[in-house]
Structure formats: structure tokens, C-alpha cells
Design brief:
heterodimer, A: Serine Threonine Protein Phosphatase 5, Tetratricopeptide repeat, Serine Threonine Protein Phosphatase 5, Tetratricopeptide repeat, B: 316 residues, mainly beta, Methylamine Dehydrogenase, Chain H, four-stranded antiparallel sheet, 30 strands, TPR_rpt (chain A)
Chain lengths: 865, 316
């Protein structure tokens, strides 16, 4: 409370200072003075408080009652142009508080009820003025407490949390609630609200905290060796950022106590203070002490982890964080750091994923943790990951919108000011130059241009873009992105979400996101998931072959980490090519020689690190994002964009995209491969071979890419030959091979097979590797499990949907029906196949063969034809 | 104003996938599919479809149907390599033409044929050309064969060109066909001479159609594009991309302002020929859309799909 009341003197700049203890005895006298000087009602409030402090309850009541009078309000509004609603509410509430105090003091039940009734009346009067005023709700809560109805009071205080005090956000709701909870012995809850209050207003504690601090200081002066007081005081100082004091307080507390728990707390505060002061060595020592004394406390571990991180020791940091999480599984800060640390390590990610889900569901507003959750679960639970990413994205979008609105408002204000200043300077110029209006106009223009060039930082000194000048617009946007990162959703998030969408088939949505990236491209960083865009071409390369050795590798692909999957996929294609080759050995010497070559280099695949992976590792490290890296990221983005276009069927646009990337970075081998695939899709195998050849030339030492290129080339060669020669019995031959393999493989492979099947089923239809289904179905067919085989073929069919491998599946499917003696179904499927591809010799042969068998069969039982 | 399509109804009318659908007049529909039947429907006042007659006789799936502009005669072609001609009023089989195995695919009536003499063309499948048929009072006879130029030989063996699609220009002067290897050929009907090839596709061209003014040709191809060619100059004008799988069929609106395509991605797309953009995508089907067709006055569209259903749309 102010020691003096400042009364502004009417129509002057003077202020009369009125010491609080010298207020006139008669309130009427004071009111006359106030009325004469037309003092604002807030001064009245101060005066009333002064009377109350002096114990003059009657005077206090008098001023309050005068203040709430209707005509006073009208007078004030006429004079100040603003209704003194808040002040009047203050008077009402003050009266209510007085009555409540009286009620507390009296023991007579009758009197007590009267006081409380009067208080309730004042409060309802206040509520009439503004039902959304926090003060009133607070008063009502207090009233309810006085009546002994803590439950309703709690409701009232909860309401306070969302209300505003005279239009301002105020933490008093939290404090009231915390106080109530404390009194009802719900300490944990109370603590939570105290923390919230601190969180919302740590720098300038509202009265509750200040009072608390004052009380603590008083306690300290009374008993400087009281350990509890010292510890509490240290905590407060820590919150207020007075680190030196913390060190002193914590040290003296430590000396005064014997309890390990308290000492641990002191060490922790000490460490945090030292940490904040940048004295890392000492801080980490103290963290370690704290952790030793109280092994169950998570905070010291977090601190230690931060220390390790500071030293660049990631492994130790994550171990510490894991220890912290063991004792406090939902420890938000630790989770967040840990998530960023173990992004690449899938087995670890799986361990903490559960914690993350819990934490994320509790922190709905924290985009960071949702993004980390998405990142961690990308490999194992893509649909969940996508959900998490979407959530993060929504949060970011909201933030961006808010920031934009704010900036827009700021800009509006500035331009308003600028206009005013320009017009006033123009006016001044005109006045100075008398009649020379031309001169005045010129100076005004100069002034204006000065303002124009000295513009807001986001526009720089560049001239404003011309209408329709997209390039300039883009440049401006980029500049804006650099200057205001908060205006854009991070490109990393957009890209990663897009990649996941791509993988779940949401092409157009993914595309839209990637388009969004462009304006903020400069500050992008890509995370390991982007590797998945490059996996699919490899898997596709395998496509044509009949692969019996695929399953174990596929299983590894499913379970393996994101980062290594590219290498695994490459390995699969190796194996697959070989087997396909064996089957056709006599016919396809050319393809075989190619494949053998790639086989020779495949030994190095596991060890070799593809250039892109390396780049990604650097980017996920993230700490040194230089100019060079941003190029890598931009190219990766452009590649993803083109890849999406390709998947959406815009082959020409995609090819143009790839070629643009190649112009800038001729070593981007994936682009050559994709160009080859696009040419193949367009039905131009010659061109496809050309691109594949280029990819091979470019890959040089990079054996994984070389293998890809060769696999693709061999596939192209094989496709060309496939058309020329008739393989009527390909199916039977492949099935025999498969059967042989199954027998030779023994039980181990069957186990693997079952695991793959389980993994596929568990992925909830998310896995998009139809080849896998075909293989699994083939295995089932060879094992004469017709129902399983049919089911798997149908799934493969659905997955393929838009793929030219459909016909192959249709053939297998018909074979499965045929083998299971469902000839009618087999015929239907074959008809479908022949309708899709009437020029296909195998189909035609099979139809003819099947028809022959059916006619024979039908003649016997005469149920058909 | 560009056109909009509004789905009227989706009906499962065949036991298996439907491969072809055409209007016979403004509110009658002819469909054929894998279940070997050709069915004739009438759109009732409430928009539902009533079956007029089911034509049986084909022994393997019906690949293509077409209706003569009089609305009284229809032809169908099937995987059993038989072309059947039906009278839609008496339900009688007017003729059945047996060709060599796999030597018939799409069928199309000539716009200038009259009641006395019906002319129609069939895409000749493995024979590598288009066959023109003339049907008199008694029976049909082949009166011309338009062959594609021989493909490049590869290792001493000529490459096969399976001809999938055929279309007459509305003025009756031109005929175009599309083949499995992406060849699109343009013929003069009167002289049965090859005018030239339209370059741009390398994959099966399963459907093609002239614009109403006969000046342009639309081709639907497995390369996921619909190409628009200038017939006179045999030049590629535009390549429409948007389907994310094979484009299986294409049909221009009688007004010439827009066209519709159906694809293996189960989507039906409406394209504006003025702005050359996709203006609407319909996703009523759940499996590949084998056939799309506007009725003669352009007020209705039908799409037929492997999901055993046809969907009718109003177009305004």
C-alpha cells in the first residue's frame, strides 16, 4: 500500500501528496477535497484503504458507500469519459470483505449470518456491474469459504482462473486456489497451482508471492539458522534469478542441517545457480552430490545430463536422462531432451516411446514434444507418428497465425505513425517555406522516402516488389523468413510430415505441405525419415523378380531402424536379383552379368555409408547448420517434391524437377534413378536405360547406388526380353523354385515368415510393400495354404491398385484359385487379367490352358457350358 | 461457366466388373462386362435405373459396347472374339461375327450409317489394324481393313501391335485407333488410307475420342495422361496429368467445352478444355473405371467400373 496518496490537482500538472497517516478525521472533508479536484475514483479507493488501515471502519464504509452511488458514477463518466465500473466493483468487494472480516470475528451465529448476508448483497451488486470480473468471483469464493463450503469455493476459484482482473490477466486465481487446497491438505494440487502462478509471473510475483517472500525474509531475520527458511529462501531467489544469493543461502542451509534429503535439495539449488552462472564444472559436481544423496530425485539427473550435453557427451547424457525418467516417467523436460538425443537410435526410441506418448497427451499445447514423438515413432508406428506430426503442425500453424496477426497489427500501427509524422512534417515544411508549396511537397517526399528506405527490418532496404513480380515477392518472403522465423512453420516439420503423408498415400496433402516449405526454405533441416523416399525406388527395383530370399531381409526392414533401412533394401535387391537370375539363367546372360557385378560390390554395402545418409546424420546433429548444409536440405526438399509429383502421375513435372536438381548437383544419384523410373513409367525403356547408365557412371565408389542402378538396368533388360520371348511355364517354374527354397530353408525361415506376417498385420495396413505380400502369398501357396494365399494376394492387389504389377498378382491369384480347385474364380481372375493386358502371352497361354482343363472338367460334371 | 457433375445414383447392375457403358438415347443405357451379359436400362423419372433387357450370348467377358445413333441397334465385342449385333427394340440378335482368337477389341459405329446399312469399326486386337464392317439386311461383311504400319522388327521378329481402341470423328471422315505399344494412328475413312501417326504415348492407349467438331483427338493412356492432339496437323496440343494411375477411358462433352476421363485410380475427372485444367474429381467408384460416356445431349454422364457398379451423373 502506498505510504502517500497522490491527488492530482485539477487542470494543472501538480500533484498533492497526502501522507496516509494524515488523512482528515472526517471522511466527508476528504471527499469534498477529492470532489473539488475531480480526483479519479481510484484515489477514493486509496483513501478508503487508508481509513481502514487507520482502523476507521466507519470512514471506510462511508467512502465506499459514497463511491458506489449512481450519481458519482455518472459524474465521473461525464468528466473522464470512462465509466468507473472497476472502481465501483472494488468498493462493493471492499465492503463485502469488511463484512466477511466482521463475520469471522464474531462468535454470535445470528450476527455472523447478518454480516455474511450483507457481504453477499455487496457482491451481487458488484456482480451486476460486470459478471466477468475476477474480483467478484474471488469475493464469492471467499464468502463460500467463510460459509464453510470449500467445494463450491473451489469451483468459484477455478472460475477465477479464466477470468480477468480489470481486463488484465492475474495469477490471483491460482494463488487463491492453491491457498484453499493447502488448507484442505491437498498439498500436491496446491503446489501445482503455486507453480503455475510462478510460471505465469516469475519475474514480478504478485502480492501472494511477494507476501510469501516478505514472510520468509521476516522468518529469516527472526531465525537465521532455520533450515526450512533458508531452503525456501534459496528456492525463491533461484526463481527470481538472484543466483549469488542462492549460493550463499544454500551453503548456509547445508551447514545447518543433518538431513540428507535437505542437503540434496541444497546441492541441487546450488548446482542450478552455478549452472546458470556458467560455472559448469562446479555445477556438475554439485549435481552429482545431489544425485548421490537423493537418488530418487530426477532433477539432479537432468542437470547432470545437461552438463554432459554441454561437454558434447551425448551417450552419457542420455543415460542420465534415462535414469531421471526411471524415477519420474512423465518428466517432461528430460523427455524432450532425450527425444532429441536418441532420434536415430530406434531400439532406444522404442524404450521411451511409451513415456513420450503419456507426456505428449498431457502437454497438448507443446508442439515440440509432439514433433519429437512423431519423429521417434516414425519407424515403428507411422500412422501414430503422422498423427503426432499433424498435431504439432496444427500447433505451429496457430502460433504462426498469432504471430502474423501481431506483426500485422504492429505494422499497421507503425504505418499509422509514419503517415502522421509525414503529414505533420509536410505541414511544417509548408509553414516554413511560406507559399512555396512545391518545395514543401518535395521535402515531404524526401521525408517520406527516408521513411520508406529506413523501413521495418523485415523489408530491408530493397524497393517494394512490383505487382506480379513473383521472384521479388519470393525473395522478400525469404528475407522475411530469415528475419522472422516465428512467422513460418519450420521446414523440417513440414517436410517430415509430408514424407509420412507420402508413405501413407496422402499425396496431394503431402504436396501441399511441401509447397508450404518453399517460402521458408532457407532455414530447413531434414531428419532421417526423409530417407524413406529413397527406399521405395529400391524396393521397386526388386519388383519384377520373384524373390524367395526376401523374407528375412524384409523382416529386418520392418524392425530395423529408419537409417539403416536403405542399406537393407539395397541388400534385398541384391539377393532378389540373384534369385531371379538363377531362374532365367540360360536366357538372360546379360542381366546376369550385370547382377553378378553388383553382387560383387554388395559386400561393401553394409559398411559403406551413402552420401545422403551422411548428410542426414550431419543434419540431425543439427548444431552446425552452415551454408553448405542448407543446400543439401534444399535439394532434399526439391527431390521430395519431385518424388511426390512422380507418385501423383505428373511425370513431366517430376522429370523437370529431377533434372533441375541435377543441374545444381550432378552427383545426386537418386535423381538419375528416379528419372530412369519415370522414363520406364512413360514406357520409354531406352531412355530409362540411358538414365540408369548415367546413375551407374555417377555412383563410382558408392556401391549402394551402383547396385541400385544395376538392379534397375537388369530389370529393364529383362522387361524388354520378357516381351519378346514366351515363358508359358514361368509360373510353374517360379513356384517350384519357391517350394524348393521353402523345403531347404527349414523351420527358421518359417518363423521369420510368421514374424513378417505379424508385423504386417500389426501395421494396420500402413505398410506399403505389396511385393512383400506377393512373396508371402507365394510362400503360403507353396505350402498349400490356399486361404491364406488368397487373402494375401488380395491384399497385394489392393496395395498395388495403381501399379502395373497387378497382372502378375492376377496370374498368381488365378493359380491359387486353380490349385484350390475353384475353377470358376480362377477363370474370373484370368479374364480380368486378360482384359487388362490382352497382349500378354502368359495370360493368354494360361487362359487357353485353363479353358482346356475346364472344358474337360465341365464335360464330366456338366455343370458349366 | 464451366460444367459441374452431380452424382445421381450408384447401382450395382452386373455380377462382375463392368467394362463398357454407352447411352442409347438420352435416358437409356447399355452396359457390358465380365459377367458376359449386355444389359439395357432405362432411367426412370425418379432417377433409378430399370432393366429393359439382358442380352445373353457372349461366352467370355464383354469388352466393349456401342450404340448406333438411332438408338435402335447396338454392337458388342467380347473376349471370346465374337462381335454381336443386337436390335434394341425386338431384342433380336441381328448378327454375330466370329473373328480369329483375340482379333477384336473395341467396337464403334460410324456416325453416317443409316437404318438400311450399318457401318461399324472394330479394333482388331492382334491383327494389328482396324476392321470396317458393313451390315446389310442379311448379314455383315468386312469391307475394309486399315492396317497400322509394320512395327520395327526386333531380332528378326515383328513386334506385335495389339489394337485396343477405335473411334470415328463425328463428321464421319476420320478414324483413329490406339494400340498396346502407344501407337495412335489416324485414317481417312473414305479411302481407308493411313494419314499418319500421333506421337507421344509409349503405353497402351485404351480409349480415344474426337471432340465434337472433329478437329481434336483425346487419347487415354496407361502413362497416366490424357493427350489432346490437333487432328489436321497431327500435333500434340496438351498433355493432361492428374490421374495417379492408368487412364482407361475418355469422353468429350457434346458442347466441346470439357471432357471426362476415368482411371485405374477409381477416379472420374472432369477437365475444362478452355483452361485445360481438371475442374472436378469424383470418387464414387472403389475400383478402376473402365468406361465413361456422355449422353447425346450432354445432360448425363455414366461411368462403369470393376466394382460392379455404374454411376450416373447429371451435368450442368
Amino acid at each position: 500500500m502506498a505510504a502517500t496518496i497522490q491527488v492530482p490537482v485539477c487542470e494543472t500538472d501538480y500533484v498533492v501528496s497526502l501522507p496516509v497517516n494524515e488523512v482528515p478525521d472526517d471522511p466527508e472533508e476528504l471527499l469534498e477535497l477529492l470532489a473539488a479536484e475531480a480526483a479519479p475514483l481510484s484515489t477514493w479507493v486509496d483513501c478508503a484503504k487508508a481509513y481502514l488501515a487507520a482502523g476507521k471502519e466507519d470512514a471506510f464504509t462511508h467512502i465506499c458507500l459514497e463511491g458506489v452511488k449512481e450519481d458519482v458514477a455518472v459524474e465521473v463518466e461525464r468528466f473522464f469519459g470512462k465509466s468507473p465500473r472497476y472502481e465501483q466493483i472494488q468498493f462493493h468487494c471492499a465492503l463485502a470483505a469488511l463484512q466477511m472480516g466482521k463475520a469471522r470475528d464474531t462468535k454470535d451465529r445470528q450476527r455472523r449470518a447478518e454480516h455474511l448476508g450483507a457481504a453477499a448483497k455487496s457482491l451481487s451488486a458488484a456482480q451486476l456491474l460486470d459478471p466477468q470480473e475476477q474480483l467478484v468471483a474471488l469475493g464469492r469464493g471467499m464468502l463460500l469459504i467463510n460459509k464453510g463450503d470449500n467445494l463450491s469455493a473451489r469451483q468459484e476459484f477455478l472460475r477465477c482462473l479464466s477470468l480477468r482482473n480489470n481486463g488484465q490477466h492475474n495469477i490471483v486465481g491460482h494463488l487463491a486456489l492453491a491457498g484453499l487446497l493447502f488448507n484442505t491438505k491437498q498439498y500436491k494440487e496446491a503446489l501445482k497451482h503455486y507453480c503455475r502462478a510462478l510460471q505465469e509471473n516469475p519475474a514480478a510475483p504478485a502480492e501472494g508471492l511477494a507476501d510469501g517472500l516478505q514472510l520468509l525474509v521476516r522468518a529469516y531475520t527472526l531465525d537465521p539458522t532455520n533450515v526450512g527458511t533458508l531452503v525456501m529462501l534459496a528456492h525463491y531467489c533461484l526463481i527470481k534469478g538472484e543466483h549469488d544469493k542462492v549460493v550463499v543461502l544454500a551453503r548456509s542451509a547445508m551447514e545447518a542441517t543433518e538431513s540428507d534429503a535437505v542437503r540434496a535439495e541444497c546441492f541441487l539449488y546450488l548446482a542450478r545457480a552455478l549452472h546458470a552462472k556458467g560455472m559448469f564444472a562446479e555445477a556438475s559436481m554439485n549435481y552429482a552430490q545431489a544425485a548421490r544423496l537423493d537418488p530418487s530425485a530426477p532433477l539432479p539427473h537432468l542437470g547432470t545430463a545437461q552438463m554432459f550435453l554441454h561437454q558434447g557427451n551425448v551417450i552419457n547424457a542420455s543415460t542420465e536422462l534415462e535414469t531421471a525418467l526411471k524415477t519420474a516417467p512423465a518428466f517432461f523436460d528430460a523427455l524432450k531432451i532425450l527425444g532429441q538425443l536418441i532420434g536415430g537410435n530406434q531400439s532406444k526410441a522404442n524404450q521411451v516411446l511409451g513415456h513420450f506418448r503419456g507426456a505428449a497427451s498431457k502437454a497438448q499445447d507443446d508442439a515440440g514434444i509432439w514433433e519429437v514423438l512423431g519423429e521417434l515413432s516414425a519407424a515403428t508406428d507411422p500412422s501414430g507418428s503422422l498423427k503426432a506430426y499433424r498435431h504439432a503442425l496444427a500447433l505451429h500453424r496457430q502460433r504462426v497465425n498469432d504471430a502474423r496477426a501481431k506483426l500485422e497489427a504492429g505494422r499497421e500501427e507503425r504505418s499509422q505513425q509514419r503517415r502522421e509524422s509525414i503529414s505533420s512534417s509536410a505541414a511544417a515544411g509548408a509553414a516554413a517555406n511560406g507559399g512555396d508549396s512545391a518545395q514543401a511537397a518535395k521535402s515531404a517526399a524526401q521525408e517520406a522516402s527516408l521513411f520508406g528506405s529506413d523501413d521495418d527490418d523485415e523489408e530491408g532496404t530493397a524497393p517494394p516488389p512490383m505487382n506480379g513480380d513473383a521472384a521479388a515477392e519470393g525473395a522478400k518472403k525469404q528475407a522475411e523468413a530469415t528475419a522472422h522465423p516465428e512467422l513460418y512453420v519450420p521446414a523440417r516439420l513440414l517436410n517430415n510430415t509430408a514424407v509420412l503423408m507420402y508413405r501413407s498415400g496422402l499425396l496431394s496433402e503431402a504436396r501441399a505441405l511441401l509447397e508450404d516449405v518453399k517460402p521458408s526454405q532457407q532455414r530447413c533441416s531434414v531428419f532421417p525419415c526423409s530417407a524413406c523416399l529413397t527406399i521405395s525406388p529400391r524396393v521397386r527395383c526388386i519388383g519384377h523378380f520373384h524373390r524367395s530370399g526376401l523374407l528375412s531381409e524384409a523382416c529386418a526392414l520392418l524392425e530395423g531402424s529408419q537409417a539403416s533401412s536403405a542399406a537393407v533394401a539395397a541388400a534385398i535387391s541384391q539377393r532378389a536379383c540373384c534369385i531371379g537370375c538363377f531362374r532365367r539363367s540360360g536366357l538372360l546372360s546379360e542381366a546376369r552379368s550385370l547382377l553378378e557385378e553388383s553382387q560383387a560390390s554388395s559386400a561393401a554395402v553394409a559398411a559403406a555409408t551413402p552420401a545422403q545418409r551422411e548428410a542426414l546424420q550431419i543434419s540431425s546433429g543439427g548444431s552446425h547448420a552452415g551454408e553448405e548444409l542448407s543446400t543439401v536440405h534444399r535439394l532434399a526438399l526439391a527431390y521430395n517434391c519431385a518424388r511426390l509429383q512422380e507418385a501423383m502421375g505428373e511425370l513431366a513435372a517430376a522429370a523437370a524437377g529431377y533434372e533441375a536438381i541435377l543441374r545444381e548437383s550432378p552427383g545426386y544419384i537418386d535423381c538419375y534413378l528416379r528419372l530412369a523410373c519415370a522414363a520406364q513409367k512413360k514406357g520409354n525403356p531406352a531412355k530409362a536405360l540411358e538414365w540408369a547408365q548415367k546413375a551407374l557412371e555417377q555412383s563410382g565408389e558408392d556401391s549402394s547406388h551402383a547396385a541400385d542402378a544395376m538392379a534397375l538396368m537388369s530389370q529393364l533388360h529383362m522387361e524388354q526380353r520378357f516381351c519378346k520371348r514366351q515363358f508359358p511355364l514361368t509360373l510353374a517354374a517360379s513356384l517350384t523354385t519357391l517350394q524348393k527354397w521353402l523345403i531347404s530353408a527349414g523351420s527358421e525361415r518359417v518363423v521369420v515368415f510368421n514374424e513378417v506376417q505379424a508385423a504386417v498385420a500389426a501395421s494396420g495396413g500402413y505398410l506399403q510393400i505389396p511385393d512383400l505380400y506377393i512373396n508371402m502369398a507365394n510362400v503360403a501357396l507353396a505350402k498349400q495354404e490356399y486361404i491364406t494365399a488368397l487373402r494375401l494376394y488380395k491384399i497385394a492387389q489392393e496395395k498395388l491398385g495403381k501399379n502395373n504389377k497387378q497382372n502378375l498378382v492376377l496370374l498368381y491369384l488365378s493359380r491359387a484359385f486353380y490349385d484350390s480347385d475353384d475353377l470358376q474364380q480362377a477363370k474370373k481372375v484370368l479374364l480380368k487379367a486378360i482384359h487388362r493386358d490382352p497382349a500378354d502371352y502368359h495370360t493368354r497361354f494360361n487362359v487357353a490352358l485353363a479353358m482346356q482343363v475346364w472344358f474337360g472338367w465341365c464335360c464330366c460334371c456338366s455343370c458349366w457350358y | 461457366m464451366s460444367k459441374r457433375l452431380t452424382t445421381l445414383q450408384r447401382a450395382e447392375v452386373h455380377a462382375e466388373g463392368i467394362w463398357s457403358a454407352r447411352w442409347s438415347g438420352n435416358n437409356r443405357l447399355l452396359t457390358g462386362g465380365q459377367d458376359e451379359s449386355v444389359k439395357h436400362f432405362e432411367e426412370k423419372a425418379d432417377g433409378t435405373l430399370g432393366l429393359l433387357h439382358s442380352y445373353e450370348g457372349h461366352t467370355l467377358g464383354v469388352v466393349s459396347v456401342d450404340v448406333h445413333s438411332s438408338g435402335q441397334v447396338a454392337a458388342s465385342s467380347s473376349l471370346d472374339s465374337v462381335i454381336r449385333v443386337w436390335n434394341l427394340e425386338s431384342h433380336a440378335t441381328l448378327d454375330q461375327i466370329e473373328t480369329a482368337a483375340m482379333e477384336t477389341w473395341s467396337v464403334a459405329f460410324s456416325p453416317d450409317s443409316n437404318a438400311q446399312q450399318l457401318n461399324f469399326a472394330t479394333a482388331g486386337g492382334t491383327c494389328g489394324g482396324v476392321l470396317l464392317w458393313e451390315m446389310g439386311q442379311e448379314s455383315s461383311r468386312m469391307h475394309a481393313e486399315m492396317r497400322l504400319p509394320p512395327p520395327k522388327e526386333e531380332r528378326g521378329r515383328p513386334k506385335e501391335r495389339f489394337v485396343l481402341s477405335v473411334a470415328y470423328s463425328p463428321d464421319g471422315n476420320r478414324l483413329a485407333c490406339g494400340a498396346m505399344d502407344g501407337t495412335v494412328a489416324l485414317f481417312d475413312v473414305a479411302s481407308a488410307q493411313l494419314l499418319g501417326l500421333l506421337e507421344g504415348h509409349f503405353k497402351p492407349v485404351r480409349s480415344l475420342a474426337f471432340t465434337p467438331d472433329s478437329s481434336m483427338l483425346l487419347t487415354a493412356c496407361d502413362d497416366m495422361h490424357v493427350n489432346l492432339y490437333d487432328v489436321e496437323n497431327r500435333a500434340l496440343v496438351e498433355s493432361f496429368s492428374g490421374h495417379d494411375s492408368w487412364v482407361l477411358s475418355v469422353s468429350p462433352h457434346p458442347s466441346g467445352t470439357c471432357f471426362v476421363s476415368g482411371g485405374s485410380d477409381a477416379k472420374v475427372k472432369l477437365w475444362d478444355l478452355g483452361t485445360r485444367t481438371c475442374i472436378q474429381t469424383l470418387t464414387d467408384h472403389t475400383d478402376q473405371v473402365w468406361s465413361v460416356a456422355f449422353n447425346p445431349d450432354g445432360s448425363r454422364l455414366v461411368s462403369a467400373s470393376d466394382d460392379k457398379t455404374i454411376v450416373t451423373y447429371s451435368c450442368a
